[in-house]
Amino acid sequence: MNDKHRIGYILPFFKRYNTIKLLVFLLVVVSYSKKAKAQQALQIGEELPAAAYQQEPSLQGKAFLLLFINSTCKNFQQQLKLADSLAQQTGISILAVTKESPAQMNSQTREAYSAGKGLRWVIQDGYWHQLFPHRIAPHLVWISPQGKVAAISHSSALKEENLLQFKQQQNIKLPLKADILNFNPKEPLLQERYPGQAAYYSLVKPYLAGATSSYGVQRDSLKQTIRTYIINFPLYRIYLMAFEKAFFILPNRLLWEVKDKAAYLPELSTMDKEAWSQRYAYCYESVLALHTPDSIRLQKIVADLNQSLGLHTREEYRKVKVWVLQKTGTLSPAKPQKVFNSLNGQQELKELRNASLTSLTSYYNFKPDHIPVLDETGYTGRIDLQLKVKDMEDLAAVNAALKPYQLQFSIQERLVEFIVFTETH
Fold first, then answer.
1. What residue ranges of the chain are covered by domains with CATH 3.40.30.10?
2. CATH superfamily entry for domain 50-169
3. Is the CB of residue 222 less than 8 Å from the CB of residue 235?
4. Which of 1, 21, 188, 383 has the most CB atoms around it within 10 Å of its CB?
């Protein structure tokens, strides 16, 4: 057999061999694609894979909810109690889903895990999180009796009327909760760079849906820049950060010259927290020269917000009426005992034990609408008080109760520093 014949004999073998390799490769790709599809994130209208009911066989043919939680969720204990109660009232199964084991849960979660009667729990979960990935918890998924994803919502949608509607109609329309899974607050908010765009900039943007609230300062020695980012915060909180008073401002040191305080303070609004944030929360970002002084950087935040949003927010001293706490004699030091404060209680007898006088003034200063209360006693020790007072706003009654302790309040005028929010349009 000559070389030509040998080659003619061998080539078909290579062709057949390559064809076999190609078929095997395609089978692997198809098999992998099917597996990947079965595990990919589900969207509204899509059906649960059959494997889901292997996880929870008793739920097949029934409507149910998945409530994804973790121990770092704020106020999640209240939501767990609410979910437990609603599950009992409506008869709809609600699964509390967490990646944590009981040992990893904090004490409050373990208590809810042990005490719940209506909630069903899925602990150390990996399966449901793969079907419904999210960044922000709590995260609520609504599954119809047909096994379709009916809604993916914020936990604020967990209401009796919604559950009853879902139970009766087997469907529900709710605002979509769509987290930005790859969100990185350390990446610039201004993603697109335009020709001729300056290296330094600042911007104010509305609420960024799907992103967690975050803030920080990044210094980049390579680019010689300093970046400030504040993402998804109430506007007044951004101002307080700029004034360096985010963590120690007294509520009655904020003055509001605005049409609607509820547009600035979520606790005054009747809107759901998420709905309020979507409408009224903001993001701020600036990139400045690396060695910009902090004082200039913070002043720029205030100036940018004021200019962008039609506000004149500033620190300002005003002469106003205040309650002044003063001594009328020698104060008796507290007895050695555990600190106790019942000023916020409903009982008529209010007590302070081994407490500072700041506990008394703060009781009033933490009420946003109360006039400022100042301590001018000069006393830095601790004290015991028993005040039998029905109404702590009744100055005469409070003074009568304070008299045996050589203390009294008087109404006077003082120069007090405020942060003033004024709408300019």
1. 50-169
2. Glutaredoxin (3.40.30.10)
3. no
4. 383
